[in-house]
């Protein structure tokens, strides 16, 4: 067979003879032979062509959404696909009724959404608000009249497959079909990660094989084109070539936008691009050697840009909230850790009857530590030769009672809004997530609580800037969801938060640099709950001409904490939906 392929004539001038049926099976089926096969080393290469994950993900997303929403021109379902099933003798209950009236009605298959489910999915996308620089405005992509998504770019499809589509499908389809689609989305999330454990790659490979087998049970054969098949080979390329973000087309496509901006004379676009490129390279070359500051290259550390992005409102703060904010700064300053230990020993010696009551000691420390450490530092400053740093000196003295409040603030390059400002904006920047060591008690009578890591989910209510004369500390006053009854994880691994159940009322403040930004999507199953999603974390700022023209932050956090098992999708379902609907086609 290999020799026949080598001597077979290829090209436009050498037309192939007509196909003669089964007796002509030995004839090669290819139309073109690449000139690379003439290279001596070509047959020894393990990877002859790198598969572009960006376009594979976009095409799979278009096929999946087109088939689920039955979008004309993009769906893999239709009368021809149903007739193919009849010809193969499988799933005969999905055959079209060609002897009916003028409009042929196709039975509603397991992969088709009902009218109410289409409204649910499109309505979920329509109401989504995502953080700034996360993606384009999802609201503008949805057409509620046609019940479809229009004008999606490659990055929009990437975001949908990574996080948003599994959330939108939570309340639709039969559970086995829904689990199969969610597993496909989570596969793309796993392979787009910036780092891998090599030992986990075989598990990812077996997962995608099982996922495609599940999809074959519920989707038509026409759905499985070459793009769906190529997902099988992506894990092998990761083993041989490393993470996909070194090879995919996102940075190249975005650089094409920069090159298009060079064009001034549309009659000579190539010359404009070449001249502007040479001029830019020359300017950067000279600037690198004549200027002291570095102008190109990746910063060694993540940008620590923290600044205000709105006007300030000055308020005089006294009482419990002011003490909470000051205590939050003390607890999150590493130089005060020794003072906390010293103060705890002081409390045990002063109140020996409560020596073993950890909860009482902790509550008492939170009440009295600020005043105690202020006196303690003043005593140490009286000593001529002391080692008190400027940080300890000014923070222990306490902040000014005149507090500046802001509606928006940038922390480490991430934009944060208050909930009040979020409600009137098109993006959502008020969601926050914090993981901290917290004392947990079993009941009100528990005297020996345990310290463990606890996850906090909430929204930013106010942004304070505490003035310590020499230092300014931005703090977030948050409305946290109750950890016990306001946060849960469902059977598929989605984290659900009920923001109406507020908790941790005595610990509302958090240091702005210690929280992570998240966003919430209303749960299609229960509107009282929201699905918590984390956006990609930026490692560095790659800004060109005021916009992100370089690397795209595509390393998204998985929408669930685990891959749904095959057992979650088990269940006997028919190929025809139970709903009494059908797909109308014009003959």
Describe the 3D structure:
Helix 6 runs antiparallel to helix 7, helix 13 packs across helix 14 and helix 14 packs across helix 15. The strands form four sheets. Strands 5, 6, 9, 10, 11, 12, 13, 14, 15, 16 and 17 form an eleven-stranded antiparallel beta sheet that branches. Strands 4-7-8 form a three-stranded antiparallel beta sheet. The chain has 587 residues and is α+β, with helices and mostly antiparallel strands. The chain is 35% helix and 16% strand. The protein contains 16 helices and 18 strands.
SS class: alpha+beta
Number of strands: 18
Evaluate the radius of gyration. Answer: 30 Å
Largest beta-sheet characterization: 11 strands, antiparallel
Mean pLDDT level: 85
Q: Please count the helical segments.
A: 16
Features:
globular, eleven-stranded antiparallel beta sheet, alpha+beta, 18 strands, disordered N terminus, three-stranded antiparallel beta sheet, 587 residues
Give a nutshell description of this structure.
35% of the residues lie in helices and 16% in strands.
